[in-house]
């Protein structure tokens, strides 16, 4: 979670995004969500960088599903790739936000809409890192917040943290007119559309 994922483009331009929330499918395969617009070259070669200098990379399965549409008034901008059996067996993945912040659960759009304007909202981007900013609005369509994000952070997990240092997923970074004004796709409709379950952090 939070690593840079790259899909090779067709015209020499690669699509660089962020591995967002870890998930399970019905076959217990481990995968990661990102933004649907990151799948610009369906079936294209995909890899993940293992360090900030981009000197080490790990090859990944291509994106298996992606969507970029509006369904029942909700914006869907999401994609998912699954680890290889070897990567899954070696536990080549993380299911925490930080060493002290655990992934507890996710919030529905209704729960997110009920949060007061100004509630701190955070994301874990592949380029900007972990940043936070105030909730601007949450509607059935999407989530708008004032956190810092830059190109390459698309797909990052967007979340809120409670007093017990539990993170609750609310969305995936989708777009934004500037670096401090960003929008996210709600997480629950994506999980339900593809029959996925959030991977949470086991209790200590």
UniProtKB/TrEMBL annotation:
Output the Gene3D superfamilies linked to this UniProt entry. Answer: Trypsin-like serine proteases
Put simply, this protein is called Trypsin
* Domain of life of the native organism: Bacteria
């Amino acid at each position: 979670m939070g690593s840079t994922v790259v899909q090779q483009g067709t015209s020499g331009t690669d699509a660089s995004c962020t591995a967002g929330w870890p998930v399970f499918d019905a076959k217990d395969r481990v995968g990661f969500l990102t933004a649907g617009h990151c799948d610009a070259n369906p079936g294209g070669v995909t890899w993940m960088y293992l360090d900030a200098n981009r000197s080490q990379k790990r090859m990944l399965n291509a994106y298996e599903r992606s969507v970029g549409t509006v369904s029942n008034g909700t914006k869907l901008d999401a994609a998912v790739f699954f680890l290889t059996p070897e990567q899954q067996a070696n536990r080549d993945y993380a299911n925490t936000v930080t060493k002290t912040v655990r992934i507890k659960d996710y919030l529905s759009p209704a729960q997110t809409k009920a949060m007061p304007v100004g509630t701190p909202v955070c994301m874990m981007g592949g380029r900007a890192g972990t940043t936070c900013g105030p909730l601007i609005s949450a509607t059935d369509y999407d989530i708008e917040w004032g956190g810092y994000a830059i190109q390459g952070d698309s797909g990052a997990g967007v979340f809120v943290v409670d007093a017990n240092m539990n993170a609750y997923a609310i969305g995936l970074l989708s777009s934004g007119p500037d670096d401090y004004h960003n929008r996210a796709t709600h997480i629950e409709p994506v999980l339900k559309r593809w029959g996925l379950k959030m991977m949470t952090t086991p209790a200590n």
